[in-house]
């Protein structure tokens, strides 16, 4: 139980560290409309139920719901997307305002805001009506205004980021919000964002973006591999396929259990220019280059056939070792390296709806997460919550297993009822069992929460002590120092340098421990009341927000030499320095570890060298490698 509690607290530290992270969301925004009705009789004109409308709910959908989830989880979200100048667009603006999302959408006269209208009876979806789509494309002026909005929103977020790198989330659902000019701008400006997440129905359209993470569904991942296979086949014939297929596919399988994804007979997935569309007869040059809108339900189905698995609706045949137990998770996991190669992403998370997800990166084993099966009406938008939490965690420098765990948890706790899923920060922390102190405040707080939190403590008559540092390898010197600092007042706030800040201050080989581990250990100390992470090299901004009664630094120098001393005194506080415990510094501990590691390596090399000498000597003499009991030992009777 203690281990589980420690793990939950470690995850909670990551949630605290992403507070107010600046995130720009761009893509296909839509309105989700839910109409709840009752039915007690059938229609006389047809065998259909007669519905009486009882309740109507509107919610942000698509890219807009991703932005809402980012804000609800504690990030600072701005949305750039084209929205129609219509009633649905007005309702979408209201949804964004209520969620505290920076609404930077671009109104497009004549364009219909995409809407998904669901009619339910007894929480069962009876039908869904969709309006708005790729046919409502942006005109030249609309594209120009969208590009301007992208640039301005980026600069707005940069102005309030306080040195934090910006994060970009791209939601491309094929509804026309991201034409080629917008995609080209995002690719060209990739270096303006630290973390980039991509959720796209057609991942092949995003060549060159090199995202941090992509989150395709199983169907979307399969279609990408199909396009890769088609491109490879056409390259073999010397043809240039339509749709700018640029992806490679391995020429050989890796073994009998390897997932084989290729084009179905007839070149499914891509067509040679001029060849007719298999269903419409339209030449390929006039047909859409890739899928638009949502994947059909059929594209998510996997059927077991005599010679393997067939993914219906995509023209993709998946062959695997014969036998029971082959499922989508196994197939997805076997193709994670290819998906990473084809997308240029550091991390690929293949979502499997009610079956969870499979996540893999460049290092470490793939991670499988699970979800609880729920009715389809409960899971609408759960992928947006997953994407938001995954992105925020990676932006906060969390490890991939941690990010995957938090993303799955965020998606899972939102599916308790019918409606568009939104995961709130307090719900995620509650699911992690995060405890609050006696004042009702968590040990781990965001920088923007700090000033209000300190005001409440001061109103209760408590004096505030503030200190900061890297606390890379927590040791007895730190514990003694923090205990002494806590004794100087009623409340101790510890500000911790982010991983990026530590690297700038200490060098590229630091920190040894990531920020989520460092703040988890600090928050577990009884002498520490609150922990906050800061990105800058100096804690000056936090000092101005806290206005500490006592500012404490470690060291044997006088308080006058502390760089922050003038600021603290100007704000009415005093500065104290506390000496370190001898030979208990982080650098000294790291040096001892390195010295011991070097010494062990030398002993190992000398040992291996002695073992190798008989083999070399015996081989040169034409004798067996191991001398018998009558043979002189190596070195006997010979010069050293």
UniProtKB/TrEMBL annotation:
Q: In which pathway does it act?
A: Bacterial outer membrane biogenesis; LPS core biosynthesis
All copies of domain Carbohydrate kinase PfkB, residue ranges: 23-123, 338-423
**Ranges of Basic and acidic residues compositional bias?**
600-627
Cytidyltransferase-like domain spans which residues? 466-561
Matches recorded under PROSITE patterns: PFKB_KINASES_1
Per UniProt, the ranges with Low complexity bias are 278-296
> Keywords of this protein's UniProt record, alphabetized?
ATP-binding, Carbohydrate metabolism, Kinase, Multifunctional enzyme, Nucleotide-binding, Nucleotidyltransferase, Transferase
Q: Phosphoprotein: is it a keyword of this entry?
A: no
Its top-level enzyme class, in one word, is transferase
Q: Which domain of life is it from?
A: Bacteria
Q: Give the catalytic activity.
A: D-glycero-beta-D-manno-heptose 1-phosphate + ATP + H(+) = ADP-D-glycero-beta-D-manno-heptose + diphosphate
EC code: 2.7.7.70
- UniProt cross-references to InterPro entries, sorted A to Z: Archaeal_FAD_synthase, Carboh/pur_kinase_PfkB_CS, Cyt_trans-like, PfkB_dom, RfaE_dom_II, Ribokinase-like, Rossmann-like_a/b/a_fold
Which stretches does the entry tag as region Disordered? Answer: 241-300, 593-640
Matching SUPFAM superfamilies, A to Z? Nucleotidylyl transferase, Ribokinase-like
Q: Pfam families attached here?
A: CTP_transf_like (PF01467), PfkB (PF00294)
- The protein here is known as D-glycero-beta-D-manno-heptose 1-phosphate adenylyltransferase
């Amino acid at each position: 139980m203690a281990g589980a509690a420690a793990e939950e607290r470690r995850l909670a530290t990551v949630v605290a560290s992403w507070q107010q992270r600046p995130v720009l969301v761009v893509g296909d925004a839509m309105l989700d409309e839910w109409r709840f009705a009752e039915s007690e009789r059938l229609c006389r004109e047809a065998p259909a139920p007669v519905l009486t409308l009882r309740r109507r709910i509107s919610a942000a959908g698509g890219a807009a719901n991703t932005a809402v989830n980012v804000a609800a989880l504690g990030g600072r979200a701005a949305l750039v997307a084209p929205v129609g100048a219509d009633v649905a667009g007005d309702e979408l603006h209201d949804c964004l305002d209520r969620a505290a999302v920076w609404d930077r959408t671009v109104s497009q006269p004549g364009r219909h805001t995409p809407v998904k209208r669901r009619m339910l009876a007894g929480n069962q979806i009876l039908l869904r009506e969709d309006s708005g789509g790729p046919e409502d494309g942006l005109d030249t002026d609309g594209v120009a205004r969208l590009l301007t909005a992208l640039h301005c929103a980026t600069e707005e977020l940069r102005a309030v980021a306080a040195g934090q790198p910006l994060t970009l989330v791209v939601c491309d659902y094929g509804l026309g919000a991201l034409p080629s000019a917008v995609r080209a701008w995002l690719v060209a400006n990739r270096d303006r964002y630290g973390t980039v997440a991509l959720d796209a129905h057609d991942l092949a359209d995003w060549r060159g973006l090199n995202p941090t993470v992509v989150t395709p569904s199983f169907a979307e991942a399969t279609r990408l591999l199909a396009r890769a296979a088609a491109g490879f086949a056409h390259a073999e014939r010397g043809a240039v396929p339509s749709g700018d297929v640029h992806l490679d596919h391995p020429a050989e399988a890796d073994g009998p259990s390897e997932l084989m994804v290729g084009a179905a007979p007839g070149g499914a997935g891509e067509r040679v220019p001029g060849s007719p569309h298999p269903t419409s007869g339209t030449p390929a040059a006039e047909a859409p280059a890739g899928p638009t809108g949502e994947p059909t339900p059929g594209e998510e189905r996997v059927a077991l056939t005599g010679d393997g698995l067939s993914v219906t609706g995509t023209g993709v045949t998946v062959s695997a070792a014969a036998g029971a137990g082959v499922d989508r998770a196994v197939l997805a996991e076997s193709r994670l390296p290819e998906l990473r190669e084809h997308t240029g992403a550091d991390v690929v998370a293949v979502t499997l709806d009610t079956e969870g997800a499979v996540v893999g990166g460049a290092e470490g084993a793939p991670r499988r997460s699970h979800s609880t099966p729920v009715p389809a009406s409960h899971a609408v938008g759960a992928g947006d919550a997953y994407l938001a939490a995954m992105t925020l965690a990676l932006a906060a420098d969390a490890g991939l297993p941690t990010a995957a765990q938090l993303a799955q948890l965020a998606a899972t706790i939102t599916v308790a009822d019918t409606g568009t899923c939104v995961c709130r920060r307090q719900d995620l922390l509650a699911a992690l069992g995060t405890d609050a102190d006696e004042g009702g405040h968590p040990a781990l707080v965001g920088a923007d929460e700090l000033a209000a939190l300190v005001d409440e403590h001061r109103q209760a008559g408590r004096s505030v002590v503030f200190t900061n540092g890297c606390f890379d390898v927590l040791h007895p010197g730190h514990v003694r120092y923090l205990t002494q600092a806590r004794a100087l007042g009623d409340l101790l706030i510890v500000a911790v340098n982010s991983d990026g800040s530590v690297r700038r201050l200490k060098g590229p080989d630091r920190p040894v421990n990531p920020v989520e581990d460092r703040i988890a250990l600090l928050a577990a100390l009884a002498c520490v009341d609150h922990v906050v992470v800061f990105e800058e090299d100096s804690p000056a901004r936090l000092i101005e927000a806290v206005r500490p009664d006592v500012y404490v630094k470690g060291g044997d120098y006088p308080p006058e030499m502390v760089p922050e001393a003038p600021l603290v005194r100007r704000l009415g506080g005093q500065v104290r320095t506390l000496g370190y415990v001898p030979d208990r510094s982080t650098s000294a501990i790291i040096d001892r570890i390195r010295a011991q590691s070097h010494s062990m390596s030398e002993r190992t090399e000398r040992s291996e060298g002695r073992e190798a000498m008989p083999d070399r000597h015996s081989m040169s003499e034409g004798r067996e490698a191991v001398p018998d009991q009558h043979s002189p030992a190596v070195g006997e009777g010979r010069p050293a």
